[in-house]
Amino acid sequence: MISFKMPSLGADMEDGTLVEWRKQPGDLLKRGDIIADVDTQKGLIEIEFFGDGVLEKQLVEEGHKVPVGTVLALIRPTGDAGELEMPEAAPKAKQEAVPTEPPTQEKKITSPPVAEEKGKRIKISPLARKIAEMQQVDISQVIGTGPEGAIVKADIEKCLVEMKMAPEKEVVDKPAEVHQQEPLQQSAIPESEAIRRAVAAAMSRSNQDIPHYYLEKRMDMSKAMAWLKEANKERTVQQRLLPVALFIKAVAKALDDVPDLNAVWENGLQRKNEINIGFVVSLRTGGIMVPAILNADTLSIDAIMACLNDIIPRARAFKLRSSELSQSTFTITSIGEGGGDKVFGVIYPPQVGIVGFGEIREEAVVHEGMIGIKPIVDVTLAADHRATDGLVGGKFMAALNKYLQNPASL
Amino acid sequence: MSKTITLTYREALKTAIREALQKDERVFLMGEDVGHYGGAFAVSKGLLKEFGPERIMDVPLSESGFTGAGIGAALAGMRPIVEIMTVNFSLLAMDQIFNNAATLLHMSGGQLNVPVVIRMGCGIGRQLAAQHSHSWEPFYAHVPGINVLAVGTHEDARGMLLSALESPDPVIIFEYTSMLNLEGDIPENAGAVDIRKAKIRREGKDLSLITYGTGVYKSLEAAEILEREGIDVEVVDLRVLRPLDEETFLASVAKTHRALLVEDAWRSVSISSEVSARIMEKAFFELDLPVERLCGVEVPIPYPKHLEDASVPQVQDIVDRVRKILRP
């Protein structure tokens, strides 16, 4: 059984209000399905599920506000885990087991998955850890049978089968706790105000906790602008590419080259496998949203542009999905026309870097002993000095510049 | 389906040399005792009579001298096959191989390819003692600029030389002395083989046995024994020790999630060290157990038969280790 929890949609989010269940018990869930709408300081967010399964039970009623990490629903997995061979007697065993099961079992899934951080390190194979994370198995509750008691793949699979066989067990005490939560009064606060508070909280935390260091580099945009001009000749108005799409792709590729910046700082530097570029969108009502372009390194420029065209209006309408808000691994802020020559970003925790693009403008530039007029952009990097040093930042800036000088390679 | 023929590893090697000599006039064989004596291990027996002294060339006992001559001939447009009796003596030719053959393309700014093929006997033979029994593939696999092949099967004994002669760059071929009399089946029309890719010799799902050279048949034999116990191992023959075809063994590990690396060479700084490192670097999240290794014991190879046998992994060692890994 998978415990589906209130997700954290950013370092600043502490709780959320379940506004509406989109799926009912018994509904079949596919990867990417939206299960519920949750109201947060960032507006109404659609919460997605990343697996296959059947919604077994809803544990939180509509209208209740619960902390991040609270189990919202139990989902019985299908797909990979569902194909595990189950003993023929399983359904029967399930019926008999429930009433006689010792109450200690209830804690099995509902206990928060922080045991590992608090207690001693859990030995688990890399593969088993990967599967556990995908299937949302709390590894602190799994008994390892591998070398030195390490948890291996078979142990996780066994645990998944057991969870499937005992679906009723974990529900007992949580709902009571949930019902004690007061219904949300957040609707009384204007949306813009809530966003302002969220930005304030995240940015204060960033400036308090993160020792930023800054690099700045002027980058020649002549090749990039020429490439865009050429590329846009063949595109309809709707399909036209903007420089920002190039920036996002170039940043994603540069992060691939310098992976220490595509990371979070949580008990040390932890690199992220996927490159999901958060993109700062300013809201007309004030405040900002940072939706992510997932796996930007693997997308074409056209795909990134299409993504931006989709995501920016949705961000402004407060219609983002949970994955788009919670999964960015690095952030870009682009000041656009007229606003400023340079922008120095404040890191969005727990990320370790933010890159800022100023306005693209023409400047007199010395090149090979001659003065010429070229489009340039001033690019800045703000990075977490706990996680990386200036050398890493410098490598990133050099890589970014290299890609912008060779736009065809993007 | 074409018919198969049964032949020894030695005959497969000889057939390949003969075909190469017939196909291309630029090809000739040079080495110690390859002519009148028929080769120290009788691989070239009869070829002198068939092709004459211009193409089957006995050379003085000077590895550095004749390997250098072979490199020179390759630079001048020939396609020499240099036989160094065993890898043990090849150290005397290392300066020629590493400082000349491996670097000349680079030093000449891309102008001079060195299409030389150097064959050497490798590994333990039959009680030949420490100075004639080394497994030194790792030395050669360390050096950029050369290609290094390990002949682990009859198919490759028949085919690798022909492909190596097509290469514009130096190729070192390791042939295994202990396998010369081993019989095997190959297709009647067998010939050149791909010398860029490793090969899955047996498909399995529980563990990847990654090996080369003498380890291939031993691993296959171990796999059969294990199959009877319900353990299904995959056998990956690396074949190409430089440049390593990591794609193939990483895919295998991604499938089985467990790996045991088997080789005769000494464990420290070996081929399996490199394979293990690449698995860790590129397939870490596929691993369900630590990568394990079975390598040669780090001693000079002993003379007595029972100690010689004990100094490199045997079929039973592989079986035992796989059992231990999968059923702790």
TrEMBL record, chain A:
Coiled coil: none
PROSITE patterns named among the record's database cross-references: BIOTINYL_LIPOYL, PSBD
Biased composition (Basic and acidic residues): 104-118
GO molecular function list: acetyltransferase activity; lipoic acid binding
Lipoyl-binding domain: residues covered: 1-76
Residue intervals of the Peripheral subunit-binding (PSBD) domain: 123-160
The keyword Isomerase belongs to this UniProt entry's keyword annotation: no
Keyword Transferase: yes
Keywords: Acyltransferase, Lipoyl, Pyruvate, Transferase
Annotated region (Disordered), positions in chain: 87-118
Transmembrane spans: none
Any one Gene Ontology cellular component term annotated for this protein: cytoplasm
Cofactor(s) needed by this chain: (R)-lipoate
Enzyme Commission numbers on file: 2.3.1.-
Family the UniProt entry places it in: Belongs to the 2-oxoacid dehydrogenase family.
Subunit structure: Forms a 24-polypeptide structural core with octahedral symmetry.
Protein's name according to its UniProt entry: Dihydrolipoamide acetyltransferase component of pyruvate dehydrogenase complex
TrEMBL record, chain B:
Gene: bfmBAB_3
Named cofactor requirement(s): thiamine diphosphate
InterPro entries associated with the record: THDP-binding, Transketo_C/PFOR_II, Transketolase-like_Pyr-bd, Transketolase_C
Listed name of the protein: 2-oxoisovalerate dehydrogenase subunit beta
Chain segments annotated as coiled-coil in the UniProt record: none
Keywords: Oxidoreductase, Thiamine pyrophosphate
Ranges where the Transketolase-like pyrimidine-binding domain occurs: 7-182
A GO molecular-function annotation: branched-chain 2-oxo acid dehydrogenase activity
Pfam family, one: Transketolase_C
Highest taxon of the lineage: Bacteria
Keyword Oxidoreductase in record: yes
Keyword Oxidoreductase appears in the UniProt entry: yes
EC number of this enzyme: 1.2.4.4
